[in-house]
TrEMBL record:
PANTHER family: FAD-DEPENDENT OXIDOREDUCTASE, PYRIDINE NUCLEOTIDE-DISULPHIDE OXIDOREDUCTASE
Top-rank lineage group of the source organism: Archaea
Matches recorded under SMART domains: RHOD
Start and end residues of each Rhodanese domain: 28-117
Name of the protein in its database record: Rhodanese-like domain-containing protein
Pfam families: Rhodanese (PF00581)
Coiled coil, from the record: none
InterPro entries: GlpE_sulfurtransferase (IPR050229), Rhodanese-like_dom (IPR001763), Rhodanese-like_dom_sf (IPR036873), Thiosulphate_STrfase_CS (IPR001307)
Signal peptide: none
The organism's taxonomic lineage, starting at the top: Archaea, Methanobacteriati, Methanobacteriota, Stenosarchaea group, Halobacteria
Location of the region described as Disordered in the Swiss-Prot/TrEMBL record: 1-31
PROSITE patterns: RHODANESE_1, RHODANESE_3
Amino acid sequence: MDLQPASANGRPMVESLSASQLQEKLSRDEDVQVVDTRVPAAFAKGHVPGAENVPYPELAARIADVDWGEEIVFVCERGESSLQAARILESYEGIDEDTLVANLTDGYEGWDGDLETE
């Protein structure tokens, strides 16, 4: 029997994703929603292609306004604030229980793929 830890609402806890795993998903054009939790200035300097910017301090206020996908990966500089953001979203009652919520483990420090700039 494969048991996974569960959160208080019974959903699986936040998944961890490596940079290479995310790059592979993006290269296969999988429907992955990448959410960058850094401040807008850092986001503008370079971000994962197709990412949207929801700064961590604004997440709680904007959580109901974002159209969340079926697979969501949060990313930040080192994978710390993005993990907290993923935990917040994972516990949000407006998210389907089938939605995969993940954190990019090493953040941009582990990312060696292309970056988009604004």
